[in-house]
Amino acid sequence: MDELFGLSKFLLTLLIFVPIERLFAARPQKIFRRGLLTDLAFQFVNGWLIFVGVIAIVALAIVVNQSVLPSSMKQAIDALPYLVQVVLVVLIGDLGVYWTHRILHVVPAMWHIHAVHHAVEELDWLAAVHQHPLDVIFMKAGSLFPLFALGFSTEAIGTYFLIYYWQAYLVHANVCLNYGPLRYVLVSPEFHHWHHSPEMEARDKNFAGMFSFYDLLFGSVYLPKGQMPNTFGVDNPMPSSYLALLAYPFVTWASKRKDFSKSRDGRANDAP
Prior knowledge:
11 helices; mainly alpha; single chain
């Protein structure tokens, strides 16, 4: 029960990141900021919803591994040393994060899911969990499905889970931290904060979760030297409560479908 809720890990994360944000803050910001209670709801309720999706993803990937993947490939992957598997898992997993994240931005229907995450206007470590469950499940499908389908060891995938857990909180944290010459290799808070900026030049940029060179490779990097964004959020008004944010993509889809139907009916009535 505690593991599903993540209470122990949450308390440990809180004890680490709150002092760090006080000492190395990128912007003046209160601990008890706007939206804190909503983010706590995302932290402790989303897990149940995401768990179901992850089980389905892993089950389907295992079926693919057992019935589709050639035995020679399975044996080759299984023979790889643990550290080699970890490196490959992190590289493949983050490539999946990159492309699913990019799809969430460029496909209008998917953006209505991901907009929930970008609704955060005061960015800090806890903003990492401010995500619609469908958003998380889709990105986990992009990263976890190929890993389990290819048959990497549970130890290597578990290590990736652990690395990504801390990375997600770090890149959202309100800290002034860049990686100098490694800024185009690893994703830093500076790198990801630009991803949340509403500035036109920064929109639909910096999709990678761990390796910024993916954005460099695919032409989606935005990292002006010596600058940091000061505002975050989206252009349109967003709900503030947890339940309203869960409903947001469905309400938006229904509204757009209704508008499309009205427009289509209007054209039909105007036809000679």
